[in-house]
Amino acid sequence: MAKIDLSVTPVREANELLRKYGAEGVDVDVLNPDARHHIGVGLIHPINVHIRGSAGYFCAGLTDGPRFIVDNNVGWGLGDNMLGGSVVVRGNASAIAAVAVRGAEVVVHGNLGSRAGQVMKEGTLCCAGSANFMAGYMMYGGRLIICGDSGELAGQDIHGGAIYVGGTV
């Protein structure tokens, strides 16, 4: 297991290391993320990436294959355009989580910000908490599962896919 400490390694360099470790099949712990943006962008190998803290914008974006665990919260754009793989967030996710996901699985243990699952094509976004307004906006496919309540305008302009809400719509 490799370790990348973001308190001493810039994110751009860390992502280059993640791609290198991915090609070698080496799993990675990311230490001291301090909500930095763009962690894990562009990975295409099926490795495990454990982010030990909070991540900022676009965590796990443009990926195909890796499996992420984020110990705390994430900023907006979580899993943007993921083709495959998974992300598990043990806290909350800000706006547009799983935007344009094309086959990945995204699980958020807390709440979702606005427009979660926007323009999803395929895959699953599951939220153990509640979602803010416009969840599933313009979805084309996939599944959005909200175990708590949905905000206003859930499924606005939906074209396909399915939205399941355990609480109040």
Features:
169 residues, mainly beta, 1 helix, 9-stranded parallel beta sheet
Strand content of the residues, in percent? 25-35%
Tertiary shape: globular
- Which sheet architecture does the biggest sheet show? 9 strands, parallel
Q: Would you tell me the overall average pLDDT? A: 97
As residue ranges, the low-confidence spans are: none
**Topology, number of strands:** 9
Structure description:
The mean pLDDT is 97. A nine-stranded parallel β-sheet has the order 1-2-3-4-5-6-7-8-9, covered by helices on one side. The longest helix has 14 residues, at 11-24. It has one helix at residues 11-24; strands spanning 2-5, 28-31, 48-51, 64-70, 84-89, 102-108, 122-127, 143-146, 162-165. With 169 residues, the chain is mainly β. 8% of the residues lie in helices and 27% in strands.
